[in-house]
Amino acid sequence: MIQRLHRSDLGNSLRSLMENDPAFRPVAYFSMEVGLKESIPTYSGGLGVLAGDILKSAADLGVPMAGVTLLYKKGYFVQEFNQDDWQQQKPVVWDPAKELTLLPNRVNITIQGRDIQVAVWVYELIGATGYPLPVYFLDTDIEPNHPDDRKLCWYLYGGDNRYRLCQEFILGVGGLRMLRDLGYMNIETFHLNEGHAGFLTLELMRELGYYDPDKIRSQVVFTTHTPVPAGHDYFDFGLINQVFPPDALATITRMMPNMPGVSMTELGLRYSRYINGVAKKHAEVSNAMFKMETVDWITNGIHPTTWISSGMRKLYNKHIPGWELDPGRLVQALTIPKEELWTAHQASKLRLLARVLETNGVQLDPNVLTLGFARRAATYKRADLLLSDISRLKKIAGGGKVQFIFSGKAHPSDDGGKALLQKIRRASKELGDSVKIVFIDNYNMEIASLLTQGVDVWLNTPIRPREASGTSGMKCAMNGIMNFSVLDGWWIEGWIEDVTGWSIGPDATETEANANYDEKLDADDLYEKLEKKVIPTYYEDHDKWVDMMRHTIALDASFFNTHRVVREYAAKAYSIDFRGM
Ligand SMILES: *Cc1c(COP(=O)(O)O)cnc(C)c1O
User: Which residue from 43, 102, 107, 38 is spatially nearest to 69, judged by alpha carbons?
Assistant: First the structure.
């Protein structure tokens, strides 16, 4: 469904669209990372995958959008482990020319006192009804650039703060200049997926030729993703001084007066006409953190046909025709015959278990309750909560009652995350056959897909309120898989106890007790519910289990998808009509 046009067709359909369609009012979607598929390794996690999913849904629905991001020649990284189970990062070898098309356009920017040429590659998404949507990847690794400038497009989250400032200047300023060079003169909305591309406001101001913050604000939409201040990019003016050319420096100094530096979130907040968080709770947390009342929310989703298994897709097509363009129709999932649903699920599970046997040499049992946990190994995600009381875990899950599959990458400079992975891998070896825990190396979109289609339950145990939204659990819901999760991010909205899954820890209301809640207690609740609810339902009440699967599809998959997300952005943030899909 999503595919590339042949090289010779490239751009023609878009060009005719731009020239002939009077309703063409483009939106430019800027994201530091975009995850379209595992063979384009220019993403590290949820932010990039979300961007990719949103662009895919926009293509499916005919929303006039273009994506802009950076090309990372060395990708994120390939994950390996040494004898001590300590993560090693190996460079990704990939050839952009195999996936993308280099366009002839070049624009110039100046950073660190040097002129740099920026090139651009394009990947054209073709939506379900044939609508083309280009994603542009900016690249400085070309002749005649200085060797240091060529390296600026090598690593995603790879260098120091200065490297990152240069990258964000390329994305914001270079990105907008490139769009103009490509012929996009009538963009009405610049959507910042997180603050990284915020410097495009400088270029908008330069184009304008005089200082008018309101004119800039009226063109920008900002989506924040980080519920903690420490997560926001910050550059002090000392550094900005060394990197920016004089005109940009003068503008940013005027735009952010009386400050020691620039927080990209603050820049986004000040110069956008619409601001949103990525779940209801996240908007509340953001409003409190920024001392604002105007942060709206548009809860994230996932792209339906990217994340659904082929078996489930067939099943939905048979029983709920039209769901692919209108996933809201999945409310009808209660009509899917239970045995057909179970068969489709088991097929995905067998595929996952075959992969585990192949990569880990461990034979898991398709009739054993299988829990999955996979995400970036950031410490706040607490991948090890399950392991906090090993003897209790053995008592509850031992004897072949539950098997676990983990996966996840730690950021190269995050030793805390690496220690988490080490702990899981060591526990897996120590527990052996008493509780089977397998770890699949090198988490990426392909592994994510196998896991979120093939496990029975998806576990998520972040420290509240750190999970702005989370999206992997939505991929599971699309496949009728229940979540068993701390009430944070999207799950607060998707959770109905014993219907779409199970909660861990306290509910999400802001009571005194919750404010002082000891997060360690989550482990108790996790063990308690695993023992008293999840395990008995799986083994003793198959009928209820499959009914919960159907409710998960009807209540969660019908809503937590990017088709709904894109429609919300179009209506609330872009104020555009599109082809009306
Ligand atoms: C979906 C996805 C994520 C995001 O998962 P969260 O639950 O939001 O942490 C991260 N990495 C990959 C590879 C994914 O496919």
Answer: 43
